[in-house]
Amino acid sequence: MAKEYVDINTLKYLLYQVHALDDLFGFERYEGHDRPSMDMFLDAIKDFADRDLFPFFKEMDDDPAGFDNGEVRVHEQVAVMMKKGGEMGVICGPLDYDQGGLQIPFMVHTAATYILDAANNHLPGYATLTLGAAELIVHFANQNLKDTYVPNMLLGAWGGTMCLTEPQAGSSLSDITTKATLTDEGYYKISGQKIFISGGDYQYVENIVHLVLARIDGAPEGTKGISLFVVPKNRVETDGSLVGNDVKTLSDFEKMGQRGFATTHLGFGDSDDCQGWLVGEANQGLKYMFLMMNDARIGVGRGAAAIAMAAYQASLQYAKERAQGRKISETGKKDPGEDQCLIIEHPDVRRMLFLQKAIAEGSLSLILLAAKYHDLQRSVSDHSEKEKYQLLLEIITPMVKTYPAEAGALAVSNGLQVLGGYGFCSDFILQQYYRDIRIFSIYEGTTGIQSQDLLGRKVLMNNGKALQLLIEEIGTTIAVASDYKDLQEWAATLKGKLTMIHEVLVYLKTFANKENYERYLSDANLFMEFLSYVVIGWNWLEMAYVAKQALDNKDAAYSEAFYESKIHTMKFYFKYELTKTNALAETLMHKEVLTQKMEKEFLV
Amino acid sequence: MAKEYVDINTLKYLLYQVHALDDLFGFERYEGHDRPSMDMFLDAIKDFADRDLFPFFKEMDDDPAGFDNGEVRVHEQVAVMMKKGGEMGVICGPLDYDQGGLQIPFMVHTAATYILDAANNHLPGYATLTLGAAELIVHFANQNLKDTYVPNMLLGAWGGTMCLTEPQAGSSLSDITTKATLTDEGYYKISGQKIFISGGDYQYVENIVHLVLARIDGAPEGTKGISLFVVPKNRVETDGSLVGNDVKTLSDFEKMGQRGFATTHLGFGDSDDCQGWLVGEANQGLKYMFLMMNDARIGVGRGAAAIAMAAYQASLQYAKERAQGRKISETGKKDPGEDQCLIIEHPDVRRMLFLQKAIAEGSLSLILLAAKYHDLQRSVSDHSEKEKYQLLLEIITPMVKTYPAEAGALAVSNGLQVLGGYGFCSDFILQQYYRDIRIFSIYEGTTGIQSQDLLGRKVLMNNGKALQLLIEEIGTTIAVASDYKDLQEWAATLKGKLTMIHEVLVYLKTFANKENYERYLSDANLFMEFLSYVVIGWNWLEMAYVAKQALDNKDAAYSEAFYESKIHTMKFYFKYELTKTNALAETLMHKEVLTQKMEKEFLV
Predict the structure, then answer these.
(1) Which uninterrupted H or E stretch holds A248?
(2) A444 belongs to the catalytic site
(3) Distance (Å) from the C-alpha of residue A346 to the closest C-alpha of chain B?
(4) What is the reported pTM?
(5) By Cβ atoms counted within 10 A, which residue in A173, B29, B34, B460 is the most buried?
(6) ipTM of this complex > 0.95?
């Protein structure tokens, strides 16, 4: 088993030096916090992760969530996750004081859950989905629903879920058919089935509060007729006692990875006795859900970024311990009389390690940046500043969700490869990370859906203002980095990519302008990849110039080698990854249209 | 469960029309065969795969090979694979008549095992490794060893393995320490341990014949002191009876994928009673092993190509049955009143399917081409022609082993993504292909090792003659394709890539010329990817022009749509995959050196 799963130095470097968490403490919302208190919180989280999450990681895969006799049984550490996590603020952390929260910056909560994800990605979801469900109630439901459900959820005594997907409605949420029928008593009767419900049932909480998308009788077709309901597993009687609410667990999906995190199939109202309470106004359900969805998507990116980090740590440790082969001498030969060298000395192994480092740390930087935009948009008072951060958050969110998942899977695969045959064996942990991370390209909107959102909505929104703001931010980093002589050529390379973005979009928009939207969006997936490379390149240039600044200032917060490793990895990313934009731009501007459906079917 | 796992039409199109199997029947070696007899053989293999392999594919994953009480227990279909496979010629097929073989072209044997691999990749290895071991004996051992072991192996009554890897010697074979001590009786006493031995033990054969690399007492250091031995699990007494030969199975490796294919840890001579017989001459073991290794590496590529094909078939079937979402209209909106469309109509799903098709069929074409070179080099009589095919086979083999494994894993991942959340669930087969294919980048020399072989040996061998021959072959295809007006621009694109290969090598060779071999080879992995894209592009251009020719000639062997699909997929490959060479060339010629070990360690 690997000894470490997260690089706390890099996490804190990104949090404090690169993304300047301290800026936030100046806002009224966060004035109750400071760096020492946040450090103490993160250190406590790391201790918790060391003790209660990481040691159970393999065990939860070997002994996965299972379904037996109508009940889902999960590993006993789920109880610890909910209870201790609840006590420590993993659930209530980002909520306002008057909502029962700790009002800590989302950046810090994100860093905390990142540590937990890296330690054992099968566990934190139980708590973070409970937070997501509680937030929906806090923001949109009436006081009675808040009083009834939220306090127990924040403590981790009750769980929470989000119920969107149905067997016939996954990517296409407009096709939801779960029914809600108003009764004279004011509640609704709910009937229907939901699938892929993470943390949908388990034995360690007294109740589970489902936030369910359903259609009120007579509601309009499509997304305009979807409402949001609180549907508890057990409803709360007037005397406070709990009685079954006709929510049945029909099965638990057996999966390739994240096997300790239950994924359930739920049936509502089989006995016509499932009661649900409307959240907010009728037919506004999808809007409410999507207002919280940005956070959920950052959460998915965070989980994938954390797995990539943990896999990097495990393969790095192996590479520093495993001797195999010899260095190539100047004659091109190897001397079998010499001792074998450590594999970390082989250039190709180093390439695989730097690739992991570039992806894992680049992803983490992007995640924390998104969290900072989230904090800023709710903290700044100036209207146009608020709009700026909202738009920046909107445009990067699809990439925040997608890049860590897609590139992270590649990083983990390289980590597995570092171990050779052992990487494929169950006694080594890389294969588990390899299986676990694969779901993140599917969770909360697949890569395809995120790509349509990026190119089809976010790039076009407010007449392209969100993209314009993003490019300005990148431009600022390029300008600052250009002040450092050693970084000038790298900054210039990134500047060239901004021109490339412009060229690609001018080309693609000719189709949108001709109302050929299907063509405009047909390579959205490649555009996602293309823009993500640039955005991660921007993050690396930022990490590099902050490191350069620290070296120049002889800032002793970290070692020289630490700062230099950031500059080195930036160069690695630019040489090995950012170059891929060239190929993608060529493909995106290629005149042949090959993926739209044609008269003859060529997929045989 | 998917209904189909292989596209027999494409297999036969490649075998007969693109790679012209019929050419071989003109050689003396293959004059006993013709197209009808080979078709009959392949059809029988397909029936066998349908009946005895494919239906047990999931079962073998659910109930994997296991180790209990010193014995490896495998699924009972292994018995069927060995027995029926043996009877049908899966083991003896490519051997000469006088060696007990059927003398069928390696192309046909490759096509046959490809069908078996696609049906259930956990099974054919038991038979093909037995063939590999038998071939080593047939080619290099004395008559007594041949008479004692080969007949039972060819029948599938006895298994066979190749024992190379040791705990301290994986990629670095020069570090093998298994000992062989000559006795007065003429045999050697063997002692040592071997790991990762595929098919190293199972209950359904009477004996297993291990071909073991070991070091004779006093042998030179490194690769020059390695000898090859026949070391049976049970030795054959003079009366023909079998007695235990002190070969112990120490464990079976539990793995992420290919779980039905036993991977064992073997101990030789724990009780000082393990007898081995030298094959050929002392200290020539690695040479013998590597003379057979080309075939083994083609076999790895074949297995990966087959899994990519099977995954493509499964996801294609799903995409043709699953309704989800709607087409985008000219207003950019979707009408929720319309029925949902099949997902195969969405451009992004089509992109994922075409990508799979391009990789799966491109890989298959390359595999069959390698098999053809193998057949030609042993059939032609002219010396320089023989050398030509030997060199062509040498230079493409690292790519034949690597591209289907690396690109195949990407293809399978796209297949999984087509299914969305279901793709991650154990009830659907994509996740099994995803796990299974991951080992192929590690088997028989990792991608890193293959890449060093390609750039470090094959590109340089005979003063670059192998590469020159390959480029001439590609040039021939470009010239022929250029005769078709519709293909001219695509042929021109491929021609540009030949120039790019030249530029990249001129740049890299400056380092080799300065005896900086480590730098020359440091990005060998990227060169492998780069050259593989071009070679697969060449295969696609070949497939396309043969299709174009068939369309022009109104050849009715296949439908018009079938031929057009080949041309369409060639264009897809050129637009979406071949473009990646641009980025790779830029990286390969980038002046920064970032992966050689430096004084300070930046991997923190």
Answers:
(1) strand A247-252
(2) yes
(3) 7
(4) 0.98
(5) A173
(6) yes
